[in-house]
């Protein structure tokens, strides 16, 4: 696995062994950032279910000012922290060794808001739907922010009230759904 573009283009990222972590492929990651577009101004990025951190690291490489990584798996945390250290990104990132739900709660308590939120939870557990609801409920997505959610293609993801599905792309067994905030109807 490598960084696709930006400051760290071509640099290799360590990955975990085993079947518990399913890193976002280079092809899917490149497609996500192509959809977000070159004009996208990254400021603050949240990478939920971060695994080895490839999505957040790609955002940092492409100019994001800061990224927060939320991951609970011990093996993935070790690899994630190693990747950040190897690329010299410790000063532009922080890692919360928590579940996504607890990480969102901690970030909400701190008043954090993000321009871009990635989520790539384990497939088949309805984690995307539940996490979208939680993000919407607590308000950690900026008014012009975007959520990119990776999930199994067989899963149908319905946006909760306050979010709209703006795009959806399928890559074999993987689908990436993009959501943005919508104003409530009067």
What would the principal axes of the Cα set say about the shape? globular
Count of helix runs: 5
Total domain modules: 1
Helical content stands at 25-40%
Low-confidence stretches: none
Quickly list its features.
alpha/beta, 186 residues, Rossmann fold
What do these coordinates show?
By secondary structure, the chain is an alpha/beta fold. The chain is built from five helices and seven strands, in the order H-E-H-E-H-E-H-E-H-E-E-E. The protein has helices at 26-36, 54-61, 74-86, 100-109, 127-138, and strands at residues 44-48, 66-70, 93-96, 114-119, 141-152, 163-171, 174-181. The protein has a seven-stranded mixed beta sheet. Helix 4 (100-109) packs parallel to helix 5. The longest helix has 13 residues, at 74-86. It is globular, with a radius of gyration of 15 Å. The mean pLDDT is 90.
